Automatic annotation (TrEMBL):
Keywords for this protein: Acyltransferase, Cell membrane, Membrane, Transferase, Transmembrane, Transmembrane helix
One GO-annotated biological process of the protein: alginic acid biosynthetic process
Organismal lineage: Bacteria, Bacillati, Bacillota, Clostridia, Eubacteriales
Membrane topology: Multi-pass membrane protein
Designated name of the protein: Alginate O-acetyltransferase complex protein AlgI
InterPro entries: Ac/AlaTfrase_AlgI/DltB, AlgI, MB_O-acyltransferase, MBOAT_fam
Listed PANTHER family: ACYLTRANSFERASE, PROTEIN-CYSTEINE N-PALMITOYLTRANSFERASE RASP
Source organism of the structure: Desulforamulus aeronauticus DSM 10349
Amino acid sequence: MVFSSLFFTFAFLPVTVILYYSLGKHFKNIVLLTASLFFYAWGEPVYVLLLCGSILINYCIGALLGRDDASRRNRKLLLIISLVFNVGCLAYFKYFGLIICTIADIGSWHLNVGIPTLPLGISFYTFQTLSYVIDVYRGKVKQQKSLILFALYSSMFPQVVAGPIVKYADIESQLADRRINFQGFYSGMRRFLCGLAKKVLLANNIGMLWSEVKAMPGTEISVLMAWAGIIAFTLQIYFDFSGYSDMAIGLGKMFGYRFKENFQYPYIAQSISEFWRRWHISFGSWFKEYVYISLGGNRVGTWKLIRNLFIVWFLTGLWHGASWNFVLWGLYFGTLLVIEKLFLQKSMAHWPKAVRHIYLLLFVVIGWVFFEFTNLTDMMSFLQTMFGIGGNALIDNQVIVKLKAYAALYIVCIIAASPWPKKRALLFKRNHGNIYRLAVTVYYCALMFFSTAYMVGSTYNPFIYFRF
């Protein structure tokens, strides 16, 4: 089940909201937990058992870690057991196929081994439960005594399958007691509608151009067409993922939760470092706290700093998918970050803002080529086309037709990916309060109408981050 579907929007969500608010306070968490397990089981009827097993095992480990009589040796052993179980499940279901295929390719063997299917959201809920166990081990939080509350934290449907990654420490106080009022519900509903519109009206439509370009034979793609296509994907993946995060944050508000922001206009950044402080913030925060700082962070010598960055970015790439192109993508950004930290950081401060912005966008767009092409040969061929190395035409009639057809959508997406609309809205609110309130009502009604119309009339509704 996805948020951008008619069943979720007009059946699952209304029923869940009605039950949640009509039953007493003591039943709210049970309603939300039941709805979350149903939501997950809708797409993964078998692997819901894996999710429940993960919840039960990590709950028991947390309970044992929180005991006053637990020795230091036993606590460390429990942490190791949790790491082996959680990382082991993730490695088996997500990377077993990659390992087998790599071994077969190296040895030129034919291995007839069954590859397990990837459970939905396993990367996200594994990181969440790990944050809980590690924080209990460190003494940062107390163990959760209620199995229902821990199960709710681990499986909450707004963010179980695609984030944002919610650390237990950030939501601990909200699990048992949270403020629920109409203002929060209304704010959450508006945020959900914004995310839904991002997903179905912007991401899906601009993504159709990239699907067309990617399906073309390499010899038929002009240089300008290659750039037009990958820029379309650059916009698609942002609106796809940030839209889903907006919907998750909005749904959380509707049920009284406050999740942290996951995107902060990453394409306005002026360095690679700043970009990654703005993109998938919850993911970057998790790796910084539990991997980078644990390795020593930047409070070490130059060589260890380089080592730490490459370890983090190797794992970052690997987390995104069981394919070597993701590892290459991670190491690509790791290399750029090392270059910035060691060589460019001081000199970049003197560059004109426009130059810094062009520098950022150029390397990010190239990075999405590494991300999108799982076949390394196709990847290199596309990069060659982008830079006019493959002998392809610079421009042709086909790309002119495409650019004319998608020109308005490009402009809307570029504007929507910046903070300009929000700033203009706030300025308008200060100067025309009454008209603003009416305009906002009309705006959200329009978003709902056009988003629903799209879901009714279109079958193109991919979600890029579901595969992770």
